Amino acid sequence: MSTSGGLFAQALVRPRMPLHVQGPRLTALLSLRSQEDRTMTARRFVVSGRVQGVGFRWFIVREAERLGLTGWTRNLPDGRVEVVAQGDTLALETLAAQLAEGPPAALVGRVDSSEEPPDPRRRTFDVTH
């Protein structure tokens, strides 16, 4: 099978979710990390593409909660989605990979990321407006 056959071929050769971030294996990886490796960091992501009106924010909330992250997400007036998430580095890297894929109805064009100062008072992951 050729990988140069456009969107259809790319869908065939690219799995929906990277194998290293699925189910029990992810839970085991996160629980094996020592407490000193779990220093809280925060990142701001801005996701571009067809990301509004497709359940993207609720997808983010579900993934963030599964990863033990706190933070928030919101739609931006220009059609992008903004995410501020905090937790350990592995969980944030995993969320970044999930943002690049998005839910089934989304078409992610780009994910920009930058460091944010963590807010230790935040205990949940919410959709804001």
Instruction: Return the CATH topology of one domain.
Output: Alpha-Beta Plaits
Share of residues in strands: 25-35%
Largest sheet: 5 strands, mixed
- The dominant shape is globular
Q: What would you report as the Rg, rounded to the nearest angstrom? A: 15 Å
Structural class: alpha+beta
SS field, number of helical segments: 4
- Corresponding CATH architecture of one domain: 2-Layer Sandwich
Helix content: 25-40%
User: Termini, distance in Å?
Assistant: 45 Å
Instruction: Count all strands and give the number.
Output: 5
Describe the protein.
The protein is an alpha+beta fold and 129 residues long. The protein has a domain of 68 residues: 2-Layer Sandwich (Alpha-Beta Plaits), CATH 3.30.70.100. Helices cover 33% and strands 28% of the residues. The chain contains 4 helices and 5 strands. The chain has a 5-stranded mixed beta sheet, covered by helices on one side. It is globular and about 35 Å long. The N terminus is likely disordered.
Quick summary of this structure?
The chain has 129 residues and is an alpha+beta fold.
Please give the structural blueprint.
Layout: H1 6-13, H2 23-32, E1 41-50, H3 56-67, E2 70-75, E3 81-87, H4 89-101, E4 107-116, E5 125-127
Parallel strand pairs: 2-5
Antiparallel strand pairs: 1-3, 1-4, 2-3
Helix pairs in contact: 3-4
Keywords summarizing the entry:
single chain; 129 residues; alpha+beta; Alpha-Beta Plaits; five-stranded mixed β-sheet; 5 strands; 28% strand; disordered N terminus
